[in-house]
TrEMBL record, chain A:
Bias (Basic and acidic residues) ranges: 173-184
Organism: Ascodesmis nigricans
Taxonomic path: Eukaryota, Fungi, Dikarya, Ascomycota, Pezizomycotina
Biased composition range(s): Polar residues: 484-493
This protein's pathway: Protein modification; protein ubiquitination
Enzyme Commission number(s): 2.3.2.27
Protein name as annotated: Postreplication repair E3 ubiquitin-protein ligase RAD18
UniProtKB/TrEMBL annotation, chain B:
Family annotation (SMART domains): UBCc
Catalytic residues as annotated in Swiss-Prot or TrEMBL: 106
UniProt keyword Phosphoprotein present: no
Keywords: ATP-binding, Nucleotide-binding, Transferase, Ubl conjugation pathway
Listed GO MF terms: ATP binding; transferase activity
Source organism per UniProt: Ascodesmis nigricans
Protein name stated in the entry: Ubiquitin-conjugating enzyme E2 2
InterPro entries noted in UniProt: Ub_conjugating_enzyme (IPR050113), UBC (IPR000608), UBQ-conjugating_AS (IPR023313), UBQ-conjugating_enzyme/RWD (IPR016135)
């Protein structure tokens, strides 16, 4: 439901390899990532100064500043060229990444399962490393390590461009059968890893092999990532794999209905225009011709047109172009994220206490009734809240004010107070109420310490935790309240049995995405938490 | 209540996931990298579960007046990050030629020299080196710039005085 949660779980990182048997793969992983978005290249293009970026990333950059993001050499969008080799390398690597990770990380798994890693298996592992570039993903032949496999599936779900290929993969690459009988190729096998090589190379290789380094075939040194180079290894020249890869890369994928997979020819690059030569009306007409929204002030029209050009031209560079419909959706998303000021230091324009009050009038009344039991407990802090109450009182209808005063000392918008308290403490900051919109809790009115009927209990916990720093002594400079400390003040209880607050309930009309706290990551990324525990300042003890 | 929240609910997750997806994804990647391979003397983490504002900590570089001290910073990311730089300020009171009394920092890579390839880690590393090598030609804090060259002992005294303020408050 919440896509960001999935995204979080499956976000691959070069550091994934750090704990594997071949940590150096992190370098390869990092080399296939765009410097700007830090993700794997999408439709990579190369600049004149020789730096490669995602098409969309560098186009957006050049829109802001006509310089290469890496070396600041002057650059123009029109001079960008597709970098097909990198695209192929990324595709090939992405296709095997999950499997490869599983293959090189399973030391303890193998021991647990009672099967020591025998020579055969080691050879297989290394085979796969060798063949990263040449084989399609071996689909489901490996069943070890369920979590990894699941991760791969999730990825497929998220990025459909990789799905088709893994489906078209032949179930069993022929390399398996090749290994069973020694091929008559005039090569000899390494006694340790069984890899076949020329006799003269064996003695050299054995040292490396014992040191755990992967065998690097001669004349093909570090090019694990280049699928074009023919492999010198007989086992990896598996004939069916090449056509499959090619087929799936260059044909519109079979999972798309024909109507949504237009041939690349339909997408022609759009030219830039000089906005100063366009009047408002002409620009509007232009946008309408392009089939995109044409409302708003001229600045917005320009920005929208620029972004459309970026999206469109980046799509032209992609080997798997998306449909115009999908691009329009992207533009919509961009619009939602960017209509607000570029630097969100300013207040969130959408926030309005009145609207909030209006929308939640029922909820307020509900909760007020439920909260009556907790009056005594709350009265102590009532004095603190006066200031905030005054703020509310303008908006709350008369009857409700009375109810609020008698039963609900905390303001209807506890985040507002909490979020503001930190910057205010720091003195140097202007109070920035826009932070309120960024907080994930969506039910600020559920202040009652009684169990609620409707809201799942995590709302309750969220409220209590968020408000705690406010009721307690705030440490100097708000330090502790600023930190996502891991114990009591943690807004996202680790052991929370309920799913995290979902953005569906987020009534703020905010375009800032809901972002899950690290504690909510699915089990796979629990490593975060252990890391967190080791960070000294992440605990509450170190404040100030 | 139920009905109204369901109505708005329909679009909410989509909106949340799509809007600024570039920013969130990029920041998540950065966070992962900082967590999994943390550089020495530097850490950063989103505060209040908000991925667009982080708290960073930075150890004062050795052989400078700032040695053995830890400084906290606030990083606010714009919605078009990394095309625009984050807004970085010291939250620990700071006495430094290129930092004003409100914690604002004068550093070219956070302004006109920003590049989209920079990230939290490079920014914090740059700031760390700025501590030891201030640019006294265009100071934000004239007194600090003056003392840095003329009277290092007094500089350190004032800096520590200000630093301790934070601890005592």
């Amino acid at each position: 439901m919440n896509r960001l949660n999935d995204l979080d779980a499956t976000l691959p990182d070069p550091a994934d390899w750090a704990t594997s048997r071949i940590p150096d793969l992190a370098v390869l992983d990092a080399a296939l990532r765009c410097e700007i978005c830090k993700d794997f290249y999408t439709a990579p293009v190369i600049t004149n100064c020789g730096h490669t970026f995602c098409s969309l990333c560098i186009r957006r950059c050049l829109g802001a500043d006509e310089k290469c993001a890496t070396c600041r050499a002057p650059e123009q969008e029109s001079r960008l060229r597709k970098n097909g080799a990198v695209q192929q390398a990324v595709d090939a690597f992405m296709a095997v990444r999950a499997t490869l990770l599983e293959a090189v990380s399973g030391i303890e798994e193998a021991e647990v399962s009672g099967q020591a890693v025998n020579a055969e298996e080691a050879a297989e592992v290394e085979d796969e490393i060798e063949e990263v570039a040449d084989i399609p993903p071996p689909s489901s032949q490996r069943r070890r390590g369920r979590p990894r496999k699941k991760k791969a599936d999730d990825e497929d779900g998220d990025e459909d461009e990789y799905r088709p290929r893994s489906q078209e993969t032949p179930p069993e690459p022929p390399k398996r059968s090749l290994r069973e009988r020694p091929p008559d190729d005039g090569l000899v096998a390494c006694p340790i890893c069984n890899r076949r090589m020329k006799e003269a190379q064996v003695s050299l290789h054995i040292d490396d092999c014992l040191a755990g380094k992967p065998y690097i075939p001669p004349r093909e040194p570090p090019s694990l990532s280049s699928p074009r180079k023919p492999s010198t290894l007989p086992s990896s020249s598996a004939p069916p794999s090449r056509p499959t890869l090619t087929q799936s890369r260059f044909q519109p994928s079979s999972t798309f209905p024909p109507s949504t997979a237009p041939p690349t020819g339909l997408f022609q690059p759009l030219p830039k225009i000089t906005y100063s030569l366009f009047t408002d009306t002409k620009l509007r007409t232009k946008l309408r011709e392009l089939g995109i929204r044409s409302d708003g002030p001229k600045k917005l029209l320009q920005d929208r047109h620029t972004e459309w050009l970026n999206l469109w031209n980046a799509n032209v560079d992609s080997p798997r172009p998306r449909t115009k419909r999908q691009l329009l959706d992207e533009l919509e998303a961009w619009e939602r994220a960017h209509v607000r000021p570029a630097n969100n230091k300013t207040k969130a324009p959408e926030w309005s206490d009145e609207k909030w009050q209006e929308k939640h009038a029922d909820t307020f009344a509900d909760l007020i009734a439920k909260a009556r039991g907790s009056i005594q407990k709350r009265r102590k802090v009532e004095a603190d809240e006066d200031e905030v109450e005054e703020r509310i009182s303008g908006e709350v209808e008369g009857a409700q004010i009375e109810q609020l005063r008698s039963s609900q000392p905390p303001p209807p918008n506890p985040q507002l107070r909490t979020a503001n308290s930190a910057p205010a403490e720091m003195g140097s900051f202007p109070p920035s109420s826009q932070t309120t919109t960024l907080l994930p809790s969506s039910q600020p009115l559920q202040q009652s310490s009684q169990p609620l009927i409707q809201g799942p209990s995590h709302h309750l916990m969220t409220y209590q935790n968020i408000s705690r720093p406010h009721h307690e002594t705030i440490p100097p400079h708000g330090a502790a309240s600023l930190l996502p400390s891991h114990s009591s003040a943690n807004p996202y209880p680790t052991r929370n049995p309920h799913p995290p607050t979902n953005p569906q309930e987020n009534q703020y009309v905010s375009s800032i995405p809901y972002v899950p706290g690290p504690d909510r990551l699915p089990a796979e990324k629990r490593k975060y938490e252990t890391i967190l525990d080791e960070i000294p300042w992440a605990g509450p003890g170190r404040a100030g | 209540m139920e009905a109204s929240s369901n109505l708005t609910a329909a679009n909410a997750p989509k909106r949340a996931a799509e809007a600024g997806a570039t920013v969130t994804k990029r920041l998540q990647t950065e966070l992962m990298q900082l967590m999994l391979s943390p550089p020495p003397g530097i850490s950063a983490f989103p505060r209040d579960g908000n991925l667009l504002s982080w708290t960073g900590t930075m150890a004062g570089p050795a052989d400078t007046p700032f040695a053995n001290l830890t400084f906290k910073l606030s990083l606010e990311f714009p919605s078009n990050y990394p095309m625009s730089p984050p807004n970085v300020t010291f939250t620990t009171p700071m006495f430094h030629p290129n930092v004003d009394m409100a914690g604002r920092i004068c550093l070219d890579i956070l302004k006109e020299k920003w590049s989209a390839v920079y990230n939290v880690q490079t920014v914090l590393l740059s700031l760390q080196s700025l501590l030891g090598e201030p640019n006294n030609k265009s100071p934000l804090n004239g007194q600090a710039a003056d003392l840095w060259d003329r009277d290092p002992a007094e500089f350190k005294r004032l800096m520590l005085l200000r630093y301790r303020e934070a601890e005592e408050e």
